[in-house]
Amino acid sequence: MHADIVIVGAGMVGSALALALQSLPLKIVLLDSGSLSAQPLDFQRPFAPRVSALSLASERILTRLQAWSGVQQRRACPYYQMEVWDGDGTGNIQFSAADVHAEHLGHIVENDLVQDALLEQLANSPIQLLAHSRLEQLTRSQNGWQLSLSDQSLLTTPLLIAADGANSAVRRLTQAPTREWDYLHHAIVTSVQTEQPHQHTAWQRFTATGPIALLPLTGQPPAGHWCSLVWSTTPEHARHLMALDSQVFNQALGQAFEYRLGKIIHSDQRFSIPLRQRHLKRYVQPGLAFIGDAAHTIHPLAGQGVNMGFLDAASLAENLIAAAQRGEQLASERVLSRFERQRMPHNLTMMGAMEGFQHLFQSDHLALRLARNFGLKLMNDTPLSKALITRQALGEGSYLPALARPLPS
């Protein structure tokens, strides 16, 4: 089979890209090793362990793709404030939507629910979906690429887009040059019920072993008392936490979080995820582009990973559609490099900021501890600095592709 564009990976970012490209009069194939059918709504099922903090820019992208209403019909919890404090001192900072005259800072949503909302739209689109199709081999040909799939079928295309996540098969098979390093940290993720309500606030405490985040969730009783936990810590401490029974783990979490939301009443099944940072040296080659986690992975410190991916998808779609209207070859490196020039500086800036935060708050050096506490206090008392950081988190701190710009009022 031949297609004009093949997108490998139908996660949130790959699915968003496919929807953004559906207006092109081209044959576009979206393939994934898993199911491509949206799951029926089930408000009784437990929260999924993987969530994202969707920014306003991501919400606008999903709105223009007709998928945001599907997300809201599921379980999307708006948050209006962010509270960050240093567990080794007295430094703290609060961010509020009101500070920048925004309705909210974003929404905490389970990843698979965002995926389901996108799949609902894809089911009614001209995009050809290939479910349960795993990429086995990849060969560059004179006219592009030949993909060998797990069902023994072959697929050819002049333009291949890799959206297949942090463990990208396309990246591995093309041996794309990458910078990567191990954080020497694992993230413990689960959902917890707290004694006190979350107040639609994203809470984050920095400790000597790593940051702990409690992100507000909605959709399970008692209302307002469920949070998604991301506890980043050393591998040894992570193994210790994973071995604890639920009652002891809940006590350890409550203590580590300084009982900011009271006791931990209940915790769901825990998962431990090793953390690595990764960034491709180039996002594009002739006939090939990488987006989302296939191009860059970031510490889950600020929940920015999927927001960066959605902006990648919006930027690539915008450049491909514009190139098609000008009659250019979509697979040319000249066309694809426009996307890279738009997105790489923003992504590197975000990754550098997260890396700096991570090192700053992990240091036990007395001078750094004093400096970070003073810095947090100073920033908290400087409205302009807080507003700039808040707008970055909203996804409004740099050039925005058309899909992510403010909606007409």
Automatic annotation (TrEMBL):
GO terms for biological process: ubiquinone biosynthetic process. One of its GO terms (molecular function) is FAD binding. Pfam families: FAD_binding_3. Keywords: FAD, Flavoprotein, Monooxygenase, Oxidoreductase. Pathway: Cofactor biosynthesis; ubiquinone biosynthesis. This is 2-octaprenyl-3-methyl-6-methoxy-1,4-benzoquinol hydroxylase. Gene3D superfamilies: FAD/NAD(P)-binding domain (3.50.50.60). Its cofactor is FAD. It comes from Thiopseudomonas alkaliphila. One of its GO terms (cellular component) is ubiquinone biosynthesis complex. Belongs to the UbiH/COQ6 family. Component of the Ubi complex metabolon, which regroups five ubiquinone biosynthesis proteins (UbiE, UbiF, UbiG, UbiH and UbiI) and two accessory factors (UbiK and the lipid-binding protein UbiJ). Residues 3-347 form the FAD-binding domain. PROSITE patterns: UBIH (PS01304).
